[in-house]
Write a structure and sequence with these properties.
With about 80 residues, the protein is mostly helical. Helix content is about 70%, strand content about 0%. The model has no long low-confidence stretch (mean pLDDT about 75).
């Protein structure tokens, strides 16, 4: 993951600084905003948090969601009795 974000940062730096009239302030602002967003994302649990939110929204709309390991009904629950 670190290599991916580092590579993305290098390419974004090149794109931002190659534009005419761009400044290092814009570059710094983009990097600080990205760091804040990714830091907030990871402090909330990253993909696990997103999964919980999406599943809770789906349940609010009455969508039945199957989870790995059983517990959501289905044919295996009926066999267990």
């Amino acid at each position: 993951a670190w290599y991916t974000t580092s590579l993305a940062t290098l390419f974004l730096n090149k794109i931002i600084l190659s534009r005419k009239g761009s400044s290092v302030h814009v570059l710094g602002m983009c990097q600080m905003t990205t760091a804040a967003v990714i830091g907030g994302w990871s402090s909330f649990g990253g993909l696990d948090w997103l999964k919980r939110v999406v599943l809770s929204v789906l349940r609010c709309f009455g969508v039945r969601v199957a989870t790995v390991g059983g517990g959501s009904g289905g044919a295996e629950s009926e066999k267990r009795g």
